[in-house]
Amino acid sequence: MKQLAQEISARFSELGVEIPIEDVEERLDKMINKFKVPREEARRSVVNYFLKSYNIKRNEFYTGQSESPLINISDVDDGKWANIRGKIVQLWDNTHESISQVGLIGDETGTIKFTIWESAGVSSVEEGKSYLLKNVVVNEWNGKFQLNVNKSSSIEFLDEEIEVGNATVEFKGAMVDIQSGSGLIKRCPECNRALTKGACMEHGKVDGVYDLRIKAVMDDGSSIQDAILKRDLVEGITGMTLESAITLAADALDQGVVLEKMKDSLVGRYYDVKGSRVDRYLIVESISPTFTYDASELDELIAAAEVI
Amino acid sequence: MAGYTREVARRIFAQEFRESNLSFKDGDDQYAPQYLLTPTGAKVNRIFIVGTLIEKEDIGTDSEYWRGRVTDPTGSFLIYAGQYQPEAAQVLAECETPAFVAVVGKPSTYTTNEGDVLTSVRPESLHIVDGQTRDMWVIETAKCTLDRIKELDGSSPNAQRAKEYYDPDAKHYSSMVSQALKSLKETY
């Protein structure tokens, strides 16, 4: 017990607080011998007592003992503590008085929402600068991960530029559907949103600008992925240009024929798409048809089937 | 994400699909999705098939009702498309047989007076594709089926339920897969 008391006292003196070892020992003794508290619990309780009475932050006392691992944003996992090195991509209007700041932080592997709670008592961050967020906890909200900077966390300014990357994802599978809102569409000239029935959600009735896009559903037999193809990719994969699509629609007096034609040439075939993931969509950067398989792959599968 | 998520289109060979007869709903809700559990433990609400359309016939009396037969290396699927599947029905009406087709659809079952369960597919979409796509599908379906066979002894609820209900012979299905794969070699 004497040793335990010395440990505690030594740790406090490192923080610049001298606590007579007898005081520590006395409290420990009371806990352990009189009230039969287990050693570790007693230790915790005594530490907390002195932290409180000398007004020391808990994380200062415990630093170094439970250092969170430094991880990439793409690797965060629910319920884990982590250190995150990243650049503040955006700061958002904060919605609640208990929140100090909220926004988006990114590193080479992706971006993630973060919330700095008022109770964390840390200095505020600036957009476009890089920081090391220490000891933040990851949780899941609305199906997405986010970082929480709370009272055991700290933030360090980093004088370096961090390249914010979008993790490129690849999906191979069959295109099983093309959703409505694809084909020849019109966009609002002001905000570029797709128009529904000739009207923009924001700006009302406007003269739209023609565009081509495809909202595709990719399926590999075990999962699905919604994918968005922009005009240049649509033109490349369908061989239909915006001009020819407009002509086609004008001849038929129906924009829908463009979508029909796209479905006929794409749905049911296999593609390899690459791009970055935003919400449930994969914003496609490249798409190529998958036509062939390896002869060796075929042999391997046959062998695998025969050993069962 | 909570709420609606699209059902994955499963890959099943015709033989396994024909040998399936356990159809059920998840939950009592009126709108609960209908599933078909296959002998290797695929829980199917949507299916993706690429095969050869070898027969088609309009069996409707008043309005058009198309029946098509799509074959893969292990057998054939029956597909039925009527007025509520306009896109698929139209393609069926216009196409020539034989043709390679890709079908995305829902499995449906019909119990005969004798108590036999017949499975068929109600297509959401049906498109003409090429032979390469069909070969890709055979490979992919073989992979998916092998994965399910390997999982049969696992702890997944679908595998356990399939085992309990069908008592499937893994050998039976793995030889089906290898037969399907070997048929690809013959074409070269």
From TrEMBL, chain A:
Organism placement in taxonomy: Archaea, Methanobacteriati, Methanobacteriota, Stenosarchaea group, Methanomicrobia
Organism the protein comes from: Methanolobus vulcani
UniProt-recorded name of the protein: Replication factor A
Keyword Plastid set for record: no
Domain of life: Archaea
Keywords: DNA-binding
Claim: Chloroplast is one of the keywords in the record: no
One GO process term, biological-process aspect: response to ionizing radiation
GO molecular function (one): DNA binding
Every Single-stranded DNA binding protein Ssb-like OB fold domain range: 95-156
InterPro entries assigned to the protein according to its UniProt record, in alphabetical order: NA-bd_OB-fold, OB_Ssb-like, SOSS-B
Entry coiled-coil feature ranges: none
NCBIfam families named in the record: PRK07217.1
SUPFAM superfamilies per record: Nucleic acid-binding proteins
Automatic annotation (TrEMBL), chain B:
Single GO MF annotation: DNA binding
Keywords: DNA-binding
UniProt-recorded name of the protein: DNA-binding protein
Species of provenance: Methanolobus vulcani
